[in-house]
Every structure is written in structure tokens, then in C-alpha cells.
């Protein structure tokens, strides 16, 4: 890949914030949608890309329920790795990716594994829009709304129950 291409890419996505707004516009073109209940009408925006669904009480981001979930790697680095995967003719190793985006080789391997899982055998298709495929893919662990707290069912000790009986 030429140096001009890399610099052009990083001009488009210089930081995580620009990558986040781009991915949000691709994932939610008609407005933010809750990943748990698919509701759109009761979403409250928060800071730094956080949203709250007032219907199911879930706090979520663009990462929730996608391959980016539970990853501390910035989104602009994810986009760059997608670009590298699609443009490289022979494929790219996790070691090469680790050097390109300045992460550990384990992190690069993790990213490649998730991207290949999301795309299946589709990486070989030359005109594939990888971003749409990745955003449409949902890993096995689906997002569920938070559970309601249970009321305490603690049994009273014998001394406490006798005390209650004597006061009544």
C-alpha cells in the first residue's frame, strides 16, 4: 500500500470520534436503535457516543452487540484493519497488522479473528462492502436488557421472628 493511501485514510479517520460518527451513520441511518429491544422512539443521547434506551433501561454504544464489543482498540484502528483486509491481495498477518496500527500481536490476532468470523468466506469477494457486513453481523452473545432486581427473600432467624411476634 502506498504512503499516500495511508495518509488519505488517516485524514478521513484521524481519531476514534470521527470513526464512531461514521459507523453510527452506517449502522443507524434512520436514527439510533436499541440493540436489545430495537426501539427508536425512547432513546436518550449521552456523552461520547453513549445512548440510553428508556424503554428497556439499556445503556449502549456503537460497540454494543457488534464485533467491536468488549474491545479497547480504538474504532479508527478497526476501520484501518478492515481497509487492509479488503485491499491486500494475498491477505495480511496479525504480525503485520500489529506493526501497522501499533498494538500487540495478540490484539491484532483478536481483531482478525472477529473480522473473519463476521465476514465468513466473504473476504475473497472484491466488491464487498466490509463495513456493512461487519455491522450487520451479531456475535452469539446477544445483547439482553438489564434484569430487574429481585426483592430480598432472606429468612428471619428464630430470635427475630419471636421478637416480631411479641411486638404484635
What would your notes on this structure say?
This protein has 168 residues and is mainly alpha-helical. The protein has one domain (3-146). Helices cover 45% and strands 5% of the residues. It is built from 7 helices and 3 strands. The chain has helices at residues 3-12, 16-27, 75-87, 94-101, 105-119, 130-136, 158-167; strands spanning 43-45, 51-53, 58-60. A 3-stranded antiparallel β-sheet has the order 1-2-3, with no helix packed on it. A hairpin with a 5-residue loop joins strand 1 and strand 2. The protein starts with a helix and ends with a helix. The mean pLDDT is 82.
Question: Would you spell out the secondary-structure blueprint of this structure?
Answer:
Elements: H1 3-12, H2 16-27, E1 43-45, E2 51-53, E3 58-60, H3 75-87, H4 94-101, H5 105-119, H6 130-136, H7 158-167
Antiparallel strand pairs: 1-2, 2-3
Helix pairs in contact: 2-3, 4-5
Please summarize what this structure is.
The chain has one domain. Helices cover 45% and strands 5% of the residues.
Radius of gyration: 23 Å
Strand order of the largest sheet: 1-2-3
Label the overall shape: elongated
Tell me the number of helical segments per DSSP (H or I, 4 or more residues long).
Answer: 7
Tell me the fraction of residues in β-strands, as a range.
5-15%
Please estimate the helix content. Answer: 40-55%
Structural class: mainly alpha
- Domain module tally: 1
- Give the CA-CA distance, first to last residue: 83 Å
Quaternary organisation of the protein chains:
single chain
Q: Say how many strands there are.
A: 3
Largest sheet: 3 strands, antiparallel
Q: What is the ordering of alpha helices and beta strands? A: HHEEEHHHHH
Mean pLDDT: 82
Low-confidence runs:
none
